[in-house]
Amino acid sequence: MIGPRDASIYIAAMMADRYGHEGIRILSNGLPDEYTEKGLQIAKAYGMTIERRPITAVLGDAGKDGKGLEGFEVEGGDRIESTIAIVAMGAVVYSDLLRDLGGDLDPTGRPLVGPKFETSVPGFFAVGDLVPGRKMQVYTGWDEAVDAADEINARIRKEKMAARLAAVGG
Ligand SMILES: Cc1cc2nc3c(=O)[nH]c(=O)nc-3n(C[C@H](O)[C@H](O)[C@H](O)COP(=O)(O)OP(=O)(O)OC[C@H]3O[C@@H](n4cnc5c(N)ncnc54)[C@H](O)[C@@H]3O)c2cc1C
After folding, report:
1. Which residues are CB-neighbours of 167 under 8 A, at least 6 positions away?
2. 34 CA distance to ligand 1 centroid (A)?
3. Total of domains in the chain
């Protein structure tokens, strides 16, 4: 599990609980780590060890006939054997456009949205991983996009209908 924050420990614990993985290594990849005391306790309880040296090489061959991942080399040349690796580095939120327009964002920079995924800037919608407090999954983003597109379409149709009614003096 690669990541310098508690998220990597929690995901590792989930992998252990769900799939029975033992002795998971947490690699902070030389980044300043932010593991909390509780995170470190969980790591200990699950028998995880934390490797803080930077990764210098990914070992293995991802080619069609390759063996796949074999592990990592860390600074100093030590080798960490591994056939599965998950990156838990967190997310970088790109919401600058909305910020520049004066839209409301949460403390992490994610856009605050209403029930139809419209931001505080009228006509500006946000869906998917950017939206705070929801599942970050493909189907979630898809469903949100349908709601937003439906709302946009409904507004366009409302204007069209109003124009037709106006044309007949309604
Ligand atoms: C390792 C991993 C495994 C996952 N597995 C699953 C899974 O099994 N099932 C599942 O449902 N979900 C899974 N997810 C989550 C899923 O990938 C995301 O929830 C989903 O991709 C979010 O869609 P999105 O459109 O919000 O964002 P993204 O898919 O991240 O799309 C945003 C796009 O915007 C582009 N972009 C960013 N800034 C700019 C800019 N300034 N100008 C132009 N383009 C820009 C990016 O390049 C990107 O293409 C996984 C995620 C990861 C990282």
Report:
1. none
2. 25
3. 2
- Statement to judge: residues 11 and 39 lie in one domain: yes
Confirm whether 87 is domain-assigned.
no
Which tokens sit at 134?
Answer: 């929801």
State whether 10 and 77 are in the same domain.
yes
pLDDT of residue 82: 92
Tell me the torsion sign for CA atoms 45, 17, 30, 80.
positive
Ligand 1 contact via 129 beta carbon (within 6 Å): yes
On the question of pLDDT at 65 being above 80, the answer is: no
In the block, which residue shows the tokens 């590792």? Answer: 12
- Asked if residue 114 and residue 68 are part of one domain, the reply reads no
> Which single residue is written with the structure tokens 């796949």?
68
What would the mean pLDDT of 92-104 be, rounded to a whole number?
95
**Do 59 and 102 fall into the same domain?**
no
Expressed as residue numbers, the domain containing 121 is: 96-167
CB atoms within 10 A of CB 59: 14
Find the 167 Cα to ligand 1 centroid distance in Å: 45
**113 — pLDDT class (breaks 50, 70, 90):** very high
Q: Is 137's C-beta closer than 6 angstroms to any atom of ligand 1?
A: yes
What atom in ligand 1 is closest to the CA of residue 96? 41
The percent of residues above 90 in pLDDT, for the chain, comes to 85
Q: Do 129 and 68 fall within a single domain?
A: no
Question: Please, what is the average pLDDT of the chain?
Answer: 94
